[in-house]
Amino acid sequence: MNQIKLEHFRRAVADISAHGDNDTLPFDVDNRFITQRQDDLAKLAFEWSKRVAKVDKKTARRLIEELPVFSERLLVPTGSAGFRITTKIHPFWNIYFNGLGIAIAEAVEPNRSSRAHSYRYIASGSSLFDREASWRSFREVAIADCEKMSGSAVVVQTDISSFYEHVSHHRIENLIDDLFGQDSNVAVQVDRFLSKFAAGRSFGLPVGGQCSRILAELLMTSIDSTLSVENIVWRRYVDDFVLVTANQSEAYRALSILSHALADYGLTLNRTKTIIITAKHYIDYVRAQLGTSEDKANKLAEIDLQFDPYSDTPETDYDELKEIVEGLDIQALLNSELRKAQPDTFLVTQIGRTLRLHDPAAAFQLCKTLLSSRNLHAFRASWSTIMRGVSSVCADPRFAPIHAGIDQLLDTIPAHSSHLLRAEVSCLHYLRTLRFRRTLDRAAFVQKVHSTTSSETVKRACVDCWRLWKDRAAFTRQRNKWSSLSAEEQRMLWLSAAQFGDEGFKFRDQVKKSIVNEWRLGIERGSEPTFANTYSEWTEGDVDASATQ
Asked: How far from the centroid of its chain's Cα atoms is residue 221's Cα?
């Protein structure tokens, strides 16, 4: 029977180290901690899993319910007018949760259909999932399916309505029990963690993390099986379905079978996105969507920017990508998007991702266009990627001649586009761009945000600004509030203390005995290693030595 292994947590730690804890959020300094203490954290998680595995299900449920697991629900923009909730999870519990997810992925992958193209788990390598199993490949094989059919073939294109929000924890628990057996505690643990992340509700997956992707695919494997048993030609990418049928009546039959299968799990199709069209029209539509390499906009869209210049561990495709980008007139493409009533979000996103690939003068002109008070609202759907790109330029000494100009552009944003900063995740991405240099305007902004926000994650980002600015006044103000701070903000302040010489180290001496209790996870036992000790020991080194600031 499937079991939880140390290797599952090692892969979870390595994945978070390489890609971040949540793809909707900027990199937190905790990612640097995870990178530099990978083995310690993986072993700590594995030891706790062994303890839970020894008790019965009722006890395991109680143990998880009693844990003080920090998680925070944050608002993140999606599209040009929508919002959704993402979840920031305590770094240790994120590792643990993802480790359980990797064990589940390993168990379920052999049972998955080749017609499902999303998040195909691979047993080794730097990524958890096969990069060849992509949205593009999903579209391309759907075209191939259409071409095999007769001229009267009909395609159903549809997706699930609010998929992640409606996933039942109880259904997930049952499916995990099928994989690990009734004597295993894995299903109970996942169920209880999901309940904590969903504020006690019995439905909904936390957005942005790897375990949620795995659990979603686990659920959909049952739906996939139903379609295959009914001899339907189908393709799926996450919650997007394409059903290829012989004619209109068969299309309607296939759609009803899919609807029934989803209803069994409390899910429904999105009526506004469900269309039935001829196979020829579908092929033409998808080919136009995928584009051709002759068009400059499509060349930009097709660039595979695997490295993330905003992360602490960017990959090294830089020179090759730079050569490709230099052959395109990116400014002209951006100006063309501005003339549209609704700019192409993905194209603007790609432009944001390429900022560091330009020479300083060209990069500054792009930043002026992207951050202009006239344009920023139009580009709001690409906010996070624009801020990531600007941050990468601000961090790079090669762009020093334009840093002052970019600082001026950034400092005016709260005045002309404050509405775009209301969502916590947008504010986090903006704070990340401010941390490189202190100006009076941004110092006032950060202080105001810290004083008014209820988000612990946003408060941590403010403290990180003060840390990197070496703002002694702000540090002193916060250290005097130590006992009233949350454990999450305390950890950031403890880290910041190293920037303030003798005052900082004396502060650490004064509070070091309290962190054993302040930062407790609820799993500590005797003289065994703890999360608090692992973190405090890490901060004694040069935390920023190998980091991209």
From this structure: 23
CA atoms within 13 A on the CB side of 402: 25
Q: What is the pLDDT of residue 428?
A: 97
Closest by CA to 62, choosing from 199, 186, 188, 190, is 188
> Side chain identity at 11, as an amino acid letter?
R
Q: Taking CA 379 as the corner, what is the angle to CA 378 and CA 383, rounded to the nearest 5 degrees?
A: 140
HSE (side-chain half, CA atoms, 13 Å) at 221:
25
Cα(71)–Cα(208) distance, integer angstroms: 13
Q: Cβ(413)–Cβ(442) under 8 Å?
A: no
CB 29 within 8 A of CB 543: yes
Q: Which residue in 69, 61, 11, 65 sits closest to 38, CA to CA? A: 11
Query: Amino acid identity of 404?
Result: A
Q: Reply yes or no on whether the pLDDT at 320 is more than 60.
A: no
- Specify the 3-state DSSP secondary structure of 127: coil
Contact 353/363 with Cβ under 8 angstroms?
no
Q: Is the separation of the CB atoms in 295 and 18 below 8 Å?
A: no
Q: Label residues 510-536 b or e (16+ Cβ within 10 Å = b).
A: ebeeebeebbebebbeeeeebbbebbb
Greater pLDDT, 274 or 126: 274
Length of the chain: 549
Q: Contact, 207 vs 84, CB < 8 A?
A: yes
Number of CB atoms found within 10 A of residue 259's CB: 14
Mean of the per-residue pLDDT values of the chain: 90
pLDDT tens digits along 393-434: 999 999 999 999 999 999 999 999 999 999 999 999 999 999
Report the distance separating Cα 177 and Cα 12, nearest Å: 21
Q: How far apart, in Å, do the first and last CA atoms of the chain sit?
A: 45
Whole-number pLDDT of residue 308: 40
Other C-beta atoms closer than 10 Å to the C-beta of 342 total 9
Helix (H, G, I), strand (E, B) or coil at 228: helix
Are 47 and 528 within 8 A, CB to CB? Answer: yes
Q: In whole angstroms, give the CA distance from residue 437 to residue 395.
A: 10
**Tokens 């552009």 label which residue?**
409
Count of alpha carbons within 13 Å of 325, Cβ hemisphere only? 23
CA 113-114-117 angle, 5° bins = 105
Is 312 in contact with 31 (CB distance < 8 Å)?
yes
